[in-house]
């Protein structure tokens, strides 16, 4: 197994090396010393570039992530390399990229970008969040047992209970906020712990550091779905987590116009493993969508911060009303996970869930509401109002859903960038009897 930067540049996973069994020499990305000599201030050697990137604040990394200027032309964005294959100029010196499933320059820029933001050893971009999650869960083998957050995203639940179960990968769902339940679920064949925090849609908070420390004592691989927080608010690798996953379709992309998934590994060895799975399964993100992701991610900080202000105001407004059965938001004073959230994250996020008491009332509200999209998904510039029982959690049997606190009247509000008072006025009219 090769390590580090070489793995990220994929010589071991490339088509050529798969066909011939040879390992190509990784070529440095970014600018050559010659290019740096020619350019006055912007162009740096790869070593200089890596050094200055690591020392920057998160907001600066969002904009200056290493590939923001095309070294060939000075263009102000990563070029879209719309190519499936790459010419061998010299057969004795194979090119860095040889086939787009194995590696594409536009996708590579995105993969390096998310790896930088999460603080990992390697990032990988997939055709959807579920493709990223599927690839990561393929790290496990028949006979392995996983401990998983009980209110995990519905699609992940479906993957575990109807697909991976056929491959003899067993799952125990636990309340991940309860360390006793996690400990009790341990079996001799347990190999991994899968967390999602805040959980979807009831926004329960898992103590990532505590669970990871326990998992490490038992040699378990740890995975966190970081979709709701994004690395802007939460970086699980800093807590020792092995693999961070994203439905990048959500806040990272941010505009409801790209379906994408990202996975980031903590170590070079895990990165090589993920790379092999990405190439082997072939569920990669295309160059156009990789470019759109990069474009969206540049404004992540500004969007998250603004949406969170709205979400806090909305949660408080809902909590003050007398006609809402429950409000779930980690920033509310009474939220049981608030302290842990504040320990491991720098924000509460932009998603508020609330239970209006009944299916009938929820559906009436959904038909009356005017501003938000009534839709599956979250994390966009426009607000999105979802009805989990019919949308994200439709795959979950009703009795399991109710057991997990996802009532028939539960709605999930992803606050966008509209004026929050307009959103509240809209909700007020939709809630009126
Ligand atoms: C928390 C979470 N994880 C994963 C997914 C799956 O991502 P995608 O729809 O991009 O496949 C979603 C989608 O809603 C999600 O909300």
UniProtKB/TrEMBL annotation:
Residues 1-10 have a biased composition (Basic and acidic residues). Its cofactor is pyridoxal 5'-phosphate. InterPro entries: Cys/Met-Metab_PyrdxlP-dep_enz, Cys_met_metab_PP, PyrdxlP-dep_Trfase, PyrdxlP-dep_Trfase_major, PyrdxlP-dep_Trfase_small. Residues 1-52 are annotated as: Disordered. Its EC number is 4.4.1.13. Residues 17-32, 41-51 have a biased composition (Polar residues). It is an enzyme of class 4 (lyase). PROSITE patterns: CYS_MET_METAB_PP (PS00868). Keywords: Amino-acid biosynthesis, Lyase, Methionine biosynthesis, Pyridoxal phosphate. Belongs to the trans-sulfuration enzymes family. This is cysteine-S-conjugate beta-lyase. It comes from Saccharibacillus kuerlensis.
